[in-house]
Every structure is written in C-alpha cells, then in structure tokens.
Amino acid sequence: GENVEQHPSTLSVQEGDSAVIKCTYSDSASNYFPWYKQELGKGPQLIIDIRSNVGEKKDQRIAVTLNKTAKHFSLHITETQPEDSAVYFCAARSGAGSYQLTFGKGTKLSVIP
Amino acid sequence: ETGVTQSPTHLIKTRGQQVTLRCSSQSGHNTVSWYQQALGQGPQFIFQYYREEENGRGNFPPRFSGLQFPNYSSELNVNALELDDSALYLCASSPRVSHNEQFFGPGTRLTVL
Fold first, then answer.
1. Phi and psi dihedrals of A100, rounded to 5?
2. B-contacting residues in A 43-82 (Cβ below 8 Å)
3. Does A94 contact chain B (CB < 8 Å)?
4. Which end of chain B is more exposed for a tag (fewer CB within 10 A), N or C?
5. CB distance B19 to B113 below 8 Å
6. How far is B82 from chain A (nearest CA, A)?
7. What's the pLDDT at B45?
8. What is the pLDDT of residue A25?
9. Which residue stretches of chain B have pLDDT < 50?
10. In the predicted model, is pLDDT for residue A95 greater than 70?
11. Residues A113, B66: contact at Cβ < 8 Å?
12. Per-residue pLDDT averaged across A63-76, rounded?
C-alpha cells in the first residue's frame, strides 16, 4: 500500500519568514495530493491540493509543488503569520478504485511573533 | 451550507464495551469516510461508505464496523473496545465517491479506560 513520509516533524519560524514542509510517497499510481491544517481540538481543514497532472499550484500565501519523478511534494507558506501556527498534514490518494487518503505524521508549525 | 458534524464530541468507555459514533455528511455529499487519529499521528483510514455499502477498508479488524443511511449520514461501531482504541475518530464527506476532496468533521475523542 501507499506510504507517506513527512518532514520535518516540528518547524519554528519568525513571523514574516517562509515555511517549507516536504513529503514523499511510495505508490507511483497516486494521483491526488492534499494538504490539511489541523488546529488544536479541531478536525483537519483542507487548505490546498494538487493533482498529478499539475506541477505547481498557488493560492495567495500558500503554494504546493509536485515532482512525480522523484515522488515528492512540498508545501510552501510565505509571509507567515501567528495564525498559521498549527499541525499540517500531507496526504496521498492512490489510483483509481481506491479513494482512501494516506496521511503523513504531521508537522507542527510554530510562528513566533 | 452545513459542514460535517459528529456526535458525541467526547466519550469515555471501559475496555470490552461497545461504542457507536455518528456523522452527518455535508449537504449534498453522498460519500463518507472514517479515520482514526491517534495522539501525535496522522489520520488512518478505517473505511468508506457509498450508497449504503462499504466501499474500501483500511487495516482495521472486523470489530470496527459501520453503516450509512439513506440520508447519507453514517455510524461507526467498535466492539470489544481495547485501550489502543483511544483516539480521535474523524468523519469526512465527499460530494461523490470519485471526488478527490474530503471534508472533515471536528471528530469524536474516545477514551478507553
């Protein structure tokens, strides 16, 4: 089955700096890669996603890149703000017929004011 | 538009007991997936329901079972509770089974003593 590795497990940045979280996946048939933000006591919130036929996607301060050859994808947050502090999860969805998401173990991002 | 709701928010059970968790999918969504999130880990896929039938299952024993009702709401049942079943149980809904995005509810925190 699919295996998703996520790094780093914790990340501290100064407010205004950029943050980058990286993930690798094992199943070359995976074709959908979402990123979720989870705040304390809440369920994961979808913040951005990318499909396997796209190399990069951007939404305001958040961007995701995908390298299918290397089987890795990354989340980039620019101009970080204290409210960006949360746990971020990457996930991968395997090929047709299987709609389950396989998640990484998460990255705890702390933005220091 | 109402999002995914789950009940109860918290639950305490003793080992060997049975528990039922409930999920109401987002309006217009006909597919429901259940995930288990242990403390400090990413969510793990339990199973998915579509058209009232199980449509894919993760690596969980048969004592984890579910139902989906005609209004697309769903239940997760766990029999013979074990201490390791203590976790946050998340429900996610999608507009249709082939749709990529999954939208999560706030979860039910289950503690097994």
1. -80, 150
2. 43-46, 49, 51
3. no
4. N
5. no
6. 23
7. 95
8. 96
9. none
10. no
11. no
12. 96
Contact: A98, B58; criterion CB under 8 Å: no
Question: Alpha-carbon distance A25 to B29, whole Å?
Answer: 28
Number of Cβ within a 10 Å radius of residue A45 = 13
Other beta carbons less than 10 A from residue A9's beta carbon: 13
The amino acid occupying position B74 is S
Interface check for A21 against chain B (CB to CB < 8 A): the answer is: no
* Residue given tokens 């989340």 in the structure block: A75
Cβ atoms of B34 and B20 within 8 Å: the answer is no
If pLDDT is split at 50, 70 and 90, which confidence band does A98 have? low
- The residue among A31, A89, A101, A108 with the most chain B CBs within 10 A of its CB, best to mutate, is A101
Tokens representing residue B6 in the block? 């789950």
Q: CB–CB of A100 and B58 under 8 A?
A: yes
Cis peptide bond prior to B106, omega within 30° of 0: no
